[in-house]
What does this fold into?
Amino acid sequence: MEKELLLYRKANFYKLKDDNEREGKSIVSITKFINDINLIEGHSILDVVDISSLSEFVHKQSVAEQVLYRFTNYVTFICEDSKWGSMSYELRHFFSSSDKEYICDNIVSDDDETLEKIIKGNNRALSFYLSDAYSILEAHLNQCGYVIESISRYISQPSLMESFQYESVIIDVSCLVEYNRFQSLAEDVVYKLPYQTIYICDENKKAKLQYELRFIFNKFIAIQDSGLLDPTVSFASDKSVSIAKKHKLITELEDDELSLFFEKFRNKLYGHPKFKDDFEELVKSFRVFNKIGEHKILSLFLMGDSGVGKTEVARAIFNCLGGSKRLAKINFGNYSNEFSLSSLIGSARGYIGSDDGEIFMKVRDTDIGVLLIDEFEKSNATLFNYFLDVLESGKMTSSLGDEIDLNGFIVVFTSNISKEDFPKRISPELRSRFDYKCMFTLLRSQDKRKYLEFRTKSIIKKISSDQNEDLEVHLLEYFNKCIDVGKYQNMRDLNKEIKKVFVKFLETSIDENSALNI
It folds into this structure.
């Protein structure tokens, strides 16, 4: 049986809520009843049920069927119009598909004053702190007997809510912005915790969180107005948080240094002559427009089969720029789940675990302005959107608000996807951010032979402190005799065979009492 559904515009919500409360009604989110279906029996038919959060659920229809059928036909349902479009078909059995009437449609502005109005209907407050004053805040609250924990802990382990101690634990909700459906997740946790629970949040997250958390908080205030703090203690910025580390950048090379760089780069990267030519032109253009502030990051997206040299591009750039530490490399094959952004850029305030993400540690610990993102296609939309912003702004921002300036960096993205799958897997917005897109093909036989010669010299250099030309010639002859490079499609497989044949060479040398010192 169809039920009544009215739509509202986001800017009108607070006016709508005030109007209902003057009539003795409340607006309640459907999530409250999804979390505890037994609450429907005690629900007042006068109160309005907002179904907007259903749009965040993957299985909207089945979730709705478990809940909506239990309400009487006298209950009024409302929904934000921007959310209704994504679920109108799934909820067709409950609500008519005809044009919906708008409620409280006399306000059309979306100004800040409307969104800043205090929401009534519950007794929870969300207090905001400045990110660079967090350490002082945490120390002060610890002295007062409080521990700050992230809401992520209770999202991932709901059973912890059963033993929650509101007298000693404060919940930080900052990390909610990292979730795809944070309204329903937040309501799921907050509705189950005691009303006396204290909630705090990073001020930088306020704009994204305030409206979506309108059903569970009635006040959004500065931490100084919460009554938690000693008024004699200053909670202004304790320091200017910045991450500054000098990296050698390709934009800083002198002309003669740049020429030497290109010469080394061409020798170190096997095959792909067109890419080498294109890369040289890209770098020259990048240097010009980077100096006038129009091109912050040079981004390359390299596709092709495994072992054809995509990753070697980043390594060659790193080595040719004189890198003495480790190349900053992130494998996105390890970042495929919903919570991967926290691992990459650091966990939120109060979360038990590391506060520093892998990508920040890797970039800080390298000495060259090159970042390699391997197996990029194996990640998810959340990380794709993060890098959309990185390539646009030229900066990486951690969950704590810290920044690393990547101005002048080269970022190499590699992927095993085909040329045909590229537009299917990567959004148009992100594709347009890549400065250069290239499909790496299989290496030619002459390139493989050059690689075989390079590996021979490399092995000799590592096993002998002195250059042994006789041994080098002998080993290269042995490799050429035992290895048919035409059988191997990529350098990775060829390198495996080189190692295997080299072991046999050692055994032969030992049997012949060769003086080979390793």
The two ends are 83 Å apart (CA to CA). The mean pLDDT is 80.
